Amino acid sequence: MYKPATIKDIAIALNLSPSTVSRALRDGYEISAGTKKIVTDYANSINYQSNPNALSLKNKRSFSIGIVVPELANSFFSQAIAGIESVAYESGYHTIITQTHDSSTRERTNANHLANRSVDGLLISMSSGTTDYTFLKTLHKNGLPIVFFDRIIDEIETFKVTSANFTGSYNATQSLIKSGRKRIAVLANAPQLSITNERLAGYKKALEDNKMPYNADLIRWCYKGGNDYQEVENAVISLLALTDQPDAIFITSDRISISCIRALKSLNADPNTMAVTGFSNSDVVDLLQPNFCYVRQKAFEMGQIAMQMLLKLIESKYPITEFETRVIDTEYHGMEKEN
Amino acid sequence: MYKPATIKDIAIALNLSPSTVSRALRDGYEISAGTKKIVTDYANSINYQSNPNALSLKNKRSFSIGIVVPELANSFFSQAIAGIESVAYESGYHTIITQTHDSSTRERTNANHLANRSVDGLLISMSSGTTDYTFLKTLHKNGLPIVFFDRIIDEIETFKVTSANFTGSYNATQSLIKSGRKRIAVLANAPQLSITNERLAGYKKALEDNKMPYNADLIRWCYKGGNDYQEVENAVISLLALTDQPDAIFITSDRISISCIRALKSLNADPNTMAVTGFSNSDVVDLLQPNFCYVRQKAFEMGQIAMQMLLKLIESKYPITEFETRVIDTEYHGMEKEN
DNA sequence: CGCATTGTCGGCAACGATTGCATAACTAAA
DNA sequence: TTTAGTTATGCAATCGTTGCCGACAATGCG
Predict the structure, then answer these.
(1) Are residues A157 and A134 both part of a single domain?
(2) Residue B256, strand partner residues
(3) Dist. CA A165–CA B171, nearest whole Å
(4) Which nucleotides of D are covered by protein (CB under 7 A)?
(5) Is residue A222 domain-resident?
(6) Which of A115, A143, A262 is the closest to B1 by Cβ?
(7) Taking CB atoms and an 8 Å cutoff, what residues of chain A touch B138?
(8) Residue B38 domain-assigned?
(9) Is residue B43 included in any domain, yes or no?
């Protein structure tokens, strides 16, 4: 059984009381310099580290924060987590990362576990299946600091960060239209997600500004968010089967973008006939298809901002009532390979 | 301040003693059915969950395990973690995931933090920079169950899982040779990694079996393991600059594979003149380059096996002295696109 | 010299949950 | 009425740490 050294061990070894050792280690004013040196030297020699469980129990502070994301095997989220970690690390916080696989149940149990494991705060990007937010509302009402990033919700008032989904989507669609595309289909993520609706709204607005009709026949929903390849392939097939075939596909999510490209390839669709533009943070997307234009989210930066917001919530001495929703702009990567 | 309900809260609300509540919740034999029902009903109604910190402190069991990997934004590791989680989840364990970014220091602090946070065990894949294993040896000697996966080390005797790196590498090289390649260069990961040496050994053996000379001029080391694109590009440039240019490149790691393909593309290398084969678990690798052959590791499976081994270590009542190193075979994906 | 101040340090209690042991209330038998 | 036996509940200690209070000696000052 693994058993690290405790303050008590040090106290016995040095013939001191546990409280004296504790204060010596924390550099308390009441301990003489001599005793401090003896204690810290001995502590270092046995590689003493305080027990975080005991500290959490006593102080209700764990200096660790919980992260709940749908999927680690997703470039956007792993990049965002890297951003979160970079800020957390230099502020002395550790991160506990959990994934939900877009399951509402896993999301709830993970969030509850983290809360009870006394994390000091929670960073969460909602899973696509969740419609009932009461578990989060309860945690939040009980005082757990929560910051939403990317997939945010309106139902809870707190700090939030998300991408300029509307604008990114609008620009991408504009670009497709300018290149002469007339019938632009959409592969959309689950409709209960904030990002899906914003991205769809940007698409619609671009059509409208160009006096092009919005055609619901050209929209396909991928409820599994690209986790289910078959769902995407079926959507693509049904688009190709339309009598009045689309000449472009706009995709509102990373995973669906990849699956769509794969589907088009396996169906031998002509890349010139069918333009493809989508959201993607894959680090190889520029190698994928010569004419694949994409919208990239600033994932790392978003993670950093989310963590900074959470720190503000955690370390504020007075309850915060003014909340901000930051919107990070996106990068559009068009046909010209400038990189 | 977030403050979950405690057993004491229940005791006061129900006018019972904390011990009675505790025993009722744990279904102790000494509590009447009536009291049990009252207690459990009330506990459910306020969504009571026991405090894991208190339990860990008392029982020295946290039912959570620590994971230390170099990089989350790496398909192999995110897939392996998914495998770990699948087993952990159904055994009632939570996972705490940390990444080292291939920094030896981060690795040490992460491992120590996890150990002190009283995880019941550790799953680790070594970062490329680490050469001093004393911190792990100390933890292991103190009784912390550790299982190594993928990037394993000899210095600590315990359960380990890794891929059939030698065979996978041998077969891939064989395949290159059979397709007529004569001068096969290598982009190798950091030389202190177990996987690098095994993969290089497989390459050498294939050359030997085909009576081809091993030429150290054709080997390039990428110490940053592909995290530094420039390092890879420089290696590729120097290979292309050889008077006797190689006609193939074999790559021992995922990230380096991607970077190499990108470098070749940006240098306008002819894919027919220069065959590329490498290890990769990227889920889009089949879309990348028409003639890119690759070796895929069974990451998910490896994660599952590692977690099962760790469970065996944790839950064994007697100290285990017989350890096993499992070797998982790899999949070779050649030119014929069968998928 | 007497009293207050300062500097060091130890003891106790508490954080939340569990558990061995003691004890209370009660029934049934002597 | 007393005693044994059963059932239900409370007390106190424990895990590692720290806040609070009190003990004690050395020192300063009037």
Answers:
(1) yes
(2) none
(3) 46
(4) 7-12, 14-20
(5) yes
(6) A143
(7) 47
(8) no
(9) no
Mean pLDDT of chain A: 91
* Residue B135 sits in the same domain as residue B229: no
A261 in Cβ contact with A280 (< 8 Å): no
Same domain, residue pair A116 and A209:
no
Answer yes or no: do A41 and A15 share one domain: yes
Residue B123 CA to its chain's centroid (Å): 8
Locate tokens 């013939």: which residue?
A15
Domain count, chain A: 3
Asked whether residue B232 is assigned to any structural domain, the reply reads yes
Q: Are residues A183 and A290 in the same domain?
A: yes
CB of A69 closer than 8 Å to CB of A80 = yes
Tell me the pLDDT tens digit for each residue of B76-90: 999 999 999 999 988
Residues A72 and A182 in one domain: no
Q: How far is A72 from chain B (nearest CA, A)?
A: 6
- Looking at the fold, whether B313 and B250 belong to one and the same domain comes out as no
Tell me which chain A residue has its CA closest to the CA of residue B66.
Answer: A96
Parent domain of B173 = 165-296
Q: Is B318 on the interface with A (CB under 8 A)?
A: no
From chain A, pick out residues whose CB is under 8 angstroms from the CB of B118: 2, 51-53
Q: How far is B216 from chain A (nearest CA, A)?
A: 30
Residue B313 CB contacts under 8 Å (≥ 6 apart), including other chains: B121, B145, B146, B147, B158, B159, B320
Indicate whether B301 pLDDT > 70. yes
In whole angstroms, give the CA distance from residue A222 to residue A73. 18
A240 or A1, which is more confident = A240
Cα of B15 to nearest chain A Cα, Å? 24
Report chain A residues whose CB lies below 8 A from the CB of B116: 4, 49-52
pLDDT digits (tens, 9 = 90+) for A150-195: 999 999 999 999 999 999 999 999 999 999 999 999 999 999 899 9
Do A259 and A316 sit in the same domain of this protein? no
Q: Do B82 and A75 touch (CB under 8 A)?
A: no
Q: Name, in order, each residue with C-beta under 8 angstroms of A177's C-beta and a sequence gap of 6 or more.
A: A184, A206, A207, A210, A212
Contacts of A284 in chain B (CB under 8 A): 258, 262, 282, 284, 288
B336: pLDDT strictly greater than 60: no
| Residue A69: CATH number of its domain | 3.40.50.2300
Q: What percent of chain A has pLDDT over 90?
A: 64
Q: Is A289 on the interface with B (CB under 8 A)?
A: yes
Query: For residues B300 and A121, what is the distance between their CA atoms, to the nearest angstrom?
Result: 30
**Reported confidence tier of residue A119, pLDDT bands at 50, 70, 90:** confident
Amino acid making up residue A22: S
Measured CA B26 to C1' D10 distance, in angstroms:
17
Reported as a single tens digit per residue, the pLDDT across B132-165 is 999 999 899 888 999 999 999 999 999 999 999 9
Please indicate whether, in this complex, the C-beta atoms of B97 and A96 are within 8 angstroms of each other: yes
